[in-house]
Amino acid sequence: MKRQYIIGLMTVILLAGCADKKDAVPDIPPSDLYSQAHMELQTGDWASSIKKLEALDSRYPFGPYSDQVQLDLIYAYYKNGDYALTSATIARFTRLNPAHARTDWVLYMSGLTNMAQDSNFMHTLFGIDRSDRDPEPVKAAFVDFKRLLERYPNSDYAADARIRLLALKNRLAEYDLASADFYLRREAYIAAINRCQEIQKTYPDTKAAHDSLKIQLKAYKAINLEDGVNKTQELITLNKEK
């Protein structure tokens, strides 16, 4: 019985050793290793590419491929859905290369990564409204794309960044609208009015800004503030005429 146990244990160890060798990144020249990683990146084999790129980054942190390896890792992590690693690599690259020629792309990828963290596949699949969810990733993405447009208005990524900024602005406005509606239902009428007015000031050209007038009107009526009711009703009429 003891002999069988020892044989079984040795078999497990042997198999584990074989698996480690199979999964190990080969010790080959960095140029060859990068070529393999780049080829896997192009074919969408994110996991294999990441493994080799991480090995390059670990073995040759100051080598001739170091900048490109980090840029490739940003892309590979993002495509593989490893958003925390994407953000960490972006932060590291930006810290080490504040004036790099591809900073516009890094900002763009940072925006995409933050946007992705606001998404949820199951919510999207079933059409569940996410307007009341924490907008912190959206705010971060908004800052990324805004910074990209301010610093690099002629970037290849500027046009797409503008489109995404519009979508993000609507997302943030919808969040504030959901908050105003929450205050209204909790009978926190002054808080509801303040939030509605903030939406109208910050996001005047959004649907949420128009919808906020209805909440504002109900809140003013609830506290019997006639002047506020009249002014809000005038704004609602003006918006209908546009």
TrEMBL record:
Q: Which domain of life is it from?
A: Bacteria
Q: Where is the Outer membrane lipoprotein BamD-like domain?
A: 27-233
Predominant localisation class: membrane
Q: Does the keyword RNA-binding apply?
A: no
Localization per record: Cell outer membrane
**Any single Gene Ontology cellular-component annotation:** Bam protein complex
Q: In Gene Ontology terms, what is a biological process of this protein?
A: protein insertion into membrane
Q: Which UniProt keywords apply?
A: Cell outer membrane, Lipoprotein, Membrane, Palmitate, Signal
For the keyword Signal, the answer is yes
Membrane topology annotation: Lipid-anchor
PANTHER family attached to this UniProt entry = OUTER MEMBRANE PROTEIN ASSEMBLY FACTOR BAMD (PTHR37423:SF1), SOLUBLE LYTIC MUREIN TRANSGLYCOSYLASE-RELATED (PTHR37423)
**Annotated function:** Part of the outer membrane protein assembly complex, which is involved in assembly and insertion of beta-barrel proteins into the outer membrane.
Q: Which family does it belong to?
A: Belongs to the BamD family.
**Can you state the subunit structure given in the record?**
Part of the Bam complex.
Protein name per its UniProtKB record: Outer membrane protein assembly factor BamD
Q: Which organism is it from?
A: Vibrio algicola
